[in-house]
Amino acid sequence: QVQLVESGGGLVQAGGSLRLSCAASKQTFSNFAMGWFRQAPGKEREFIAAISWTATNTYYANSVKGRFTISRDNAKNTVALQMNSLKPEDTAVYYCSKDQIPWRVGVPRDRDEYDTWGQGTQVTVSS
Question: Which residues contact 39 (CB under 8 A, 6 or more apart)?
Protein backbone atom coordinates (compact mmCIF):
# COMPACT_ATOMS: atom_id res chain seq x y z
CA GLN A 1 0.00 0.00 0.00
CA VAL A 2 1.46 3.34 -1.08
CA GLN A 3 1.54 6.04 1.57
CA LEU A 4 1.44 9.71 0.65
CA VAL A 5 2.78 12.61 2.71
CA GLU A 6 2.13 16.22 1.74
CA SER A 7 4.23 19.20 2.75
CA GLY A 8 4.67 22.84 1.86
CA GLY A 9 1.47 24.40 3.08
CA GLY A 10 1.37 27.61 5.07
CA LEU A 11 0.11 31.15 5.32
CA VAL A 12 0.63 33.49 2.37
CA GLN A 13 -0.74 36.84 1.27
CA ALA A 14 -3.00 37.15 -1.73
CA GLY A 15 -0.95 37.23 -4.90
CA GLY A 16 1.79 35.12 -3.38
CA SER A 17 3.02 31.64 -4.20
CA LEU A 18 3.42 28.29 -2.50
CA ARG A 19 4.78 24.97 -3.66
CA LEU A 20 3.23 21.82 -2.28
CA SER A 21 5.02 18.51 -2.42
CA CYS A 22 3.79 14.96 -2.00
CA ALA A 23 6.15 12.09 -1.29
CA ALA A 24 5.12 8.51 -2.02
CA SER A 25 6.47 5.56 -0.11
CA LYS A 26 6.75 3.06 -2.93
CA GLN A 27 8.49 2.81 -6.26
CA THR A 28 5.23 1.68 -7.89
CA PHE A 29 4.10 5.31 -7.55
CA SER A 30 5.45 5.85 -11.06
CA ASN A 31 2.79 3.53 -12.54
CA PHE A 32 -0.11 5.68 -11.38
CA ALA A 33 -1.61 9.02 -12.27
CA MET A 34 -1.59 11.45 -9.35
CA GLY A 35 -3.96 14.19 -8.36
CA TRP A 36 -4.40 17.12 -6.01
CA PHE A 37 -7.67 17.95 -4.33
CA ARG A 38 -8.64 20.54 -1.75
CA GLN A 39 -11.32 20.92 0.86
CA ALA A 40 -12.42 24.19 2.40
CA PRO A 41 -14.41 24.31 5.66
CA GLY A 42 -18.00 23.30 5.09
CA LYS A 43 -17.38 22.31 1.49
CA GLU A 44 -16.85 19.05 -0.36
CA ARG A 45 -13.42 17.93 -1.44
CA GLU A 46 -12.85 19.24 -4.95
CA PHE A 47 -10.54 18.27 -7.78
CA ILE A 48 -7.69 20.69 -8.51
CA ALA A 49 -5.20 19.05 -10.83
CA ALA A 50 -3.97 15.70 -12.08
CA ILE A 51 -1.00 14.34 -13.99
CA SER A 52 -0.73 11.10 -15.91
CA TRP A 53 1.69 8.36 -14.91
CA THR A 54 3.87 9.29 -17.89
CA ALA A 55 3.71 12.99 -16.94
CA THR A 56 2.73 13.80 -20.51
CA ASN A 57 -0.87 14.73 -19.72
CA THR A 58 -2.19 17.17 -17.14
CA TYR A 59 -5.63 18.52 -16.33
CA TYR A 60 -6.73 21.43 -14.18
CA ALA A 61 -9.93 22.68 -12.66
CA ASN A 62 -11.07 25.94 -14.21
CA SER A 63 -10.65 27.69 -10.87
CA VAL A 64 -6.87 27.16 -10.88
CA LYS A 65 -6.03 26.92 -14.57
CA GLY A 66 -3.22 29.28 -15.49
CA ARG A 67 -2.21 29.75 -11.85
CA PHE A 68 -1.34 26.24 -10.64
CA THR A 69 1.06 23.74 -12.20
CA ILE A 70 1.28 20.05 -11.35
CA SER A 71 4.47 18.10 -11.97
CA ARG A 72 6.06 14.83 -10.94
CA ASP A 73 9.49 13.31 -10.53
CA ASN A 74 9.16 9.54 -10.81
CA ALA A 75 12.81 9.02 -9.91
CA LYS A 76 12.15 10.67 -6.55
CA ASN A 77 8.58 9.39 -6.07
CA THR A 78 7.24 12.91 -5.70
CA VAL A 79 4.50 15.05 -7.17
CA ALA A 80 4.35 18.80 -6.75
CA LEU A 81 1.81 21.57 -7.07
CA GLN A 82 3.17 25.03 -7.80
CA MET A 83 0.56 27.61 -6.82
CA ASN A 84 0.95 31.19 -8.06
CA SER A 85 -1.28 34.26 -7.83
CA LEU A 86 -2.99 32.81 -4.81
CA LYS A 87 -6.40 34.12 -3.80
CA PRO A 88 -8.23 33.99 -0.46
CA GLU A 89 -10.66 31.51 -2.00
CA ASP A 90 -7.76 29.08 -2.45
CA THR A 91 -7.70 28.64 1.32
CA ALA A 92 -8.25 24.96 2.08
CA VAL A 93 -6.63 21.72 3.13
CA TYR A 94 -4.83 20.29 0.11
CA TYR A 95 -4.62 16.55 -0.45
CA CYS A 96 -2.42 14.46 -2.67
CA SER A 97 -4.00 11.33 -4.12
CA LYS A 98 -3.15 8.25 -6.19
CA ASP A 99 -5.13 6.80 -9.06
CA GLN A 100 -6.56 3.35 -8.36
CA ILE A 101 -5.70 2.03 -11.85
CA PRO A 102 -2.08 1.67 -13.02
CA TRP A 103 -1.02 2.78 -16.47
CA ARG A 104 -4.31 4.58 -17.09
CA VAL A 105 -4.77 6.18 -20.51
CA GLY A 106 -5.73 9.74 -19.72
CA VAL A 107 -6.06 11.61 -16.46
CA PRO A 108 -8.58 10.81 -13.72
CA ARG A 109 -10.66 13.75 -12.54
CA ASP A 110 -13.24 12.18 -10.27
CA ARG A 111 -12.59 11.65 -6.57
CA ASP A 112 -13.88 8.08 -6.86
CA GLU A 113 -11.07 7.23 -9.28
CA TYR A 114 -8.47 7.70 -6.53
CA ASP A 115 -7.84 5.16 -3.79
CA THR A 116 -5.05 6.58 -1.63
CA TRP A 117 -4.88 9.94 0.10
CA GLY A 118 -2.37 11.87 2.11
CA GLN A 119 -3.13 13.50 5.43
CA GLY A 120 -3.44 16.95 3.87
CA THR A 121 -1.61 20.23 4.27
CA GLN A 122 -3.25 23.53 5.18
CA VAL A 123 -3.00 26.48 2.81
CA THR A 124 -4.25 29.83 4.07
CA VAL A 125 -4.32 32.89 1.83
CA SER A 126 -4.90 36.22 3.55
CA SER A 127 -6.44 39.20 1.79
Answer: 45, 46, 92, 93, 95, 120
pLDDT, average across residues 43-48: 97
33 close to 18: Cβ distance less than 8 angstroms: no
Confidence band of 29 (pLDDT split at 50, 70, 90): confident
Whether 59 contacts 69, CB under 8 Å: no
What does the pLDDT look like over 61-104, one tens digit per residue?
Answer: 999 999 999 999 999 999 999 999 999 999 999 999 999 999 99
Alpha-carbon span 55 to 70, nearest angstrom:
9
Using CA atoms, how far residue 41 sits from 24, 37, 38, 65, in Å, is 26, 14, 10, 22
